[in-house]
Amino acid sequence: MSYLLPLTLSTLGGLSLLVLSSTAPTLTTHQLSFLLVGLVLFGLSSQVKKAFYLKHALLIYLAVTFLLLATLVLGGGRGTRRWLSLAGLSFQASQLAVPMVGLWLSLLASQLNLKKLKELFILVGFVLLPAALIFLEPDLGATLWFLLPVAGLIFVSGVSLKHLFLLSGVGLLSSLLVFSLALKPYQKERIKSFLTANKTNSNQTASDYNRDQALIAIGSAGLWGKGFGGGTQSQLKFLPEKHTDFIFASATEEGGVVFALILISLYLIIFSFLLSQAKKTSQPANFFLFYLAVLFGWQVIINLGGNLGLLPITGLPLPFFSYGGSSIASWALSLGIAQSLKKLSK
Q1: Cα→Cα distances 339→4, 46, 50, Å
Q2: Contact at 8 Å (CB) between 125 and 154?
Q3: 0.90 exceeded by the pTM?
Q4: How far apart are CA 61 and CA 125, in angstroms?
Q5: Alpha helices in 112-183 (DSSP H)
Q6: Could you tell me what percentage of the chain is helix, strand and coil, using 3-state DSSP and rounding each to the nearest 5?
Q7: Distance between the two ends of the chain, CA-based, in angstroms?
Q8: Most distant CA pair in the chain: distance in Å?
Q9: Which has the closest alpha carbon to 101: 156, 143, 139, 141?
Q10: Any residues with CB less than 8 A from the CB of 317 and at least 6 apart, and which?
């Protein structure tokens, strides 16, 4: 089992390079560099003693929260503040922060009595700080990506049903208020576009166009695809962001349903590994492994759902497959920590 994660991640990386060499060849060398750095990070973080991560969980939380704050003050990127530049390198702090804050939240969940409302609010307070900083960038997709696994963590931590219903009610009310008062127009447009996807609408938005092109690419693929280099939507530039947001659509168009199923199977292997190890480890490691499993699975679902027109398009990448260093580095580090913590047997 010790080689399962590195082999699976290496396979995902190899498939990513295959697709990029066809759809965005100028980016292949950069992606190879990101993947090599990711594998090094995985190897190093998996060799660190598990006690180190638990001992320094609060420090890690404070460090990544500071990065989120620095991004909000100093960051940039397409009219938002999502990217932070240091020493000539740009990275998305939320991609690192969301997995890493789970360490401290998991430790808290194992130490607090979440049946007590006061102690539950302590945990929620530590959740809201990074969530608010990510939302203000603004990055609605990453905020939703963060909150679902946190809800799962609270659920498995022994919270009472009464408090669970209370949190659910507050969450629903807060969501309605955020939609009405705090969302940017383009964020509302994406949600409305998703909700009206099957209705006749003469005023097609950019989100509608992106979704339609992705569906055309996937729907025309067939069992074996059009061959690498032969995808019409990808090669003729109808499909936007074919190397990041919609890399699954471009990969399916050229590699077919068979390629898509191989890709999904690799993600299922990682998800199953994290869940199975969560069952075998003791607190708080099991909470963190469960948190990572939900976080990882949810990110894959969000990306694939956007490509298939089943969910709004959020911009979240496919781990170890979409082009970009931030996601690869953060997931390599996170899964390396998971590899280390799995040794903490019950």
Answers
A1: 10, 5, 9
A2: no
A3: yes
A4: 13
A5: 117-135, 140-156, 161-181
A6: 70, 5, 25
A7: 17
A8: 59
A9: 143
A10: 244, 245, 247, 299, 303, 323, 324, 327
Domain ranges of the chain: 4-185+203-341
Q: How far apart are CA 344 and CA 269, in angstroms?
A: 21
CA distances from 43 to 84, 153, 260, 339 (A): 25, 27, 28, 9
Report the C-alpha gap between 3 and 198 in whole angstroms.
45
Q: How far apart are CA 33 and CA 214, in angstroms?
A: 28
User: pLDDT tens per residue, the chain (346 residues)?
Assistant: 578 999 999 999 999 999 999 999 999 999 999 999 999 999 999 999 888 999 999 999 999 999 999 999 988 766 678 888 877 778 899 999 999 999 999 999 999 998 899 999 999 999 999 999 999 998 888 999 999 999 999 999 888 888 888 888 887 887 777 667 667 777 767 676 666 665 545 566 677 888 899 999 999 999 999 999 999 998 888 898 999 999 999 999 999 999 999 999 999 999 999 999 999 998 999 999 999 999 999 999 999 999 998 988 888 999 999 999 999 999 999 999 999 987 655 4
Kind plus residue range of the DSSP H or E element containing 138? none
Contact 281, 110 (CB under 8 A): no
Tell me which residue of 2, 25, 103 sits closest to 59, measured CA to CA. Answer: 103
